[in-house]
Amino acid sequence: MSVMLYEGKAKKIFATEKADEVVIYYKDDATAFNGLKKGTIVNKGIINNKLTEFFFQLLEKAGVKTHLIKRLSDRELLCKKVDVLPLEVVVRNIAAGSLSQRLGLPEGEWLAEPIVELYYKNDSLGDPLVNYYHIKALSLASPAQVAVLEKEALAVNGALTEHLLRKGIKLVDFKLEFGLHNGEILLADEITPDTCRLWDAATDDKLDKDRFRRDLGQVEDAYHEVLYRLTGEKE
Questions:
Q1: Separation between Cα atoms, residue 176 and residue 38, nearest integer Å
Q2: Phi, psi for 5 (deg, rounded to 5)
Q3: Closest listed residue to residue 149, CA positions, set 122, 127, 130, 123
Q4: Is the dihedral of CA 158, 163, 166, 168 positive or negative?
Q5: Among 77, 94, 103, which Cα is nearest to 192's?
Q6: Hey, what's the torsion of the CAs at 192, 196, 197, 200, to 10 degrees?
Q7: pLDDT tens for residues 129-162?
Q8: Contact 56, 68 (CB under 8 A)
Q9: What is the arithmetic mean of pLDDT over 213-217?
Q10: How does pLDDT run across 84-96, given as a tens digit for each residue?
């Protein structure tokens, strides 16, 4: 049995025979509001595993380097082991969630241009929003690393926004994590309805974890719909 290195809210990470590779196992657990709300979304782990593989392969073709090696099973990805940078990078195309609350923007309003935000990855502090001065003072990343994070995040946004719109989905906003592998910054973690706000392009129906956060119902249906539109798979 492989040694588990880490268990998070949505995934488990296991060691492999190679020191620089790990297996990531996707769970069905669902959390919101920094873990205050907990539940289960049936087969979410299978869907998110397949979607992360899909998105990372798409981004690799677009020139964004990721930690993905290959999918091993319905719930497992083989990935390069990275030292995760303690910053979450959020890109916003449409006003929603905390951005609407902080700036008084109506939810659903398109922004003049994408906004990139940086958050200190610290559960005990609620992952607070930080700027370059905070990052420097806390030694979270170098200025050069921050520049790479922002550049890569905008590249991800450009590739995914266009592709998703062709599938009838608006990419409202999303969260990314990056890590260091042999000194190189790679896109890591996942890209799924857990980490993105995805709205139907025609109706603005939510196709993401907001259905769980806001008790909107039909959560499983939304996740299945995203998988089907992007890959043609039912599950």
A1: 22
A2: -90, -30
A3: 130
A4: negative
A5: 77
A6: -40
A7: 999 999 999 999 999 999 999 999 999 999 999 9
A8: yes
A9: 93
A10: 999 999 999 999 9
